[in-house]
Amino acid sequence: MKRLFFILSLFILTACSQKAPTSTSAILLNEEPTTTTSDVVDQKTTTPTLFIHGYAGGPSSFGHLIKRMEENNVATKEMTLTITSDGEIQAEGELTGEATNPMIQVLFQDNESHEWNQAEWLRAALAYLKETFGVEKVNLVGHSMGGVSSLRYLGTYGEDATLPQVEKFSAIGAPFNDFVATSQTLDDLLRNGPTKYSARYQDYQAMMPTMPTFAVQLIAGQLSEMDLSDGTVPLSSALSVYALLKEHHLPISYTIISTNAQHSQLHENTEVDQLLQTFLWNE
Question: What pTM, to 2 d.p., does this model score?
Fold first, then answer.
């Protein structure tokens, strides 16, 4: 009887000792999300991202998107820059220099001017940020004409070492080949570029030798299988520069939005929000 009791006691002690590592493992697993969350916070940078509206745009053009980014604790709006037709900067707010993924909303006082003026005004804005806050790097996000003007700026002033260098450029529904629609397949467009060229697209071709290196994201809207456009900009125009920029060895990606894809609603689309978060801030 004593021998049986001894064997039972030994079995219980052995079983308890085998459970200890399981308890330790559970504690370690519970600690992992804390480390991961800290890493995500540490990924935020001081690099400002400029949001440039389209033709006839204004504060509401990117205003709601910027607010959603703030509400989701992805980025922080720190400034609004309004640029007059004379290229003067009217600044509201200031850059803190902190790693908040700072956002800057750019507004053109003459919001119906052409892309050449807007490229000049973007240059004035970036020069201001360099001179006032010592900004060395920026990201650009442009909707519609804002994307067109941003790429024209990059081809004209992108290699100017006295200005902040652009790290990432996202274009949302931008008519890079004006409003020319082509009937070619998407594969052919992405591989070879458009079969019909607008004067705007030819300008981009001529700018390639002075185009700096930056990452590119193209976002285009497609309303339906029958309507290969966002209702304003043909899909083939929004993606027309893909082959051109890829040939220039720029890292480039594209996404076609098919839900809530109407042109003026693209910057109100939460799918676009997520695409921007991933591209700009690895969120």
Answer: 0.85
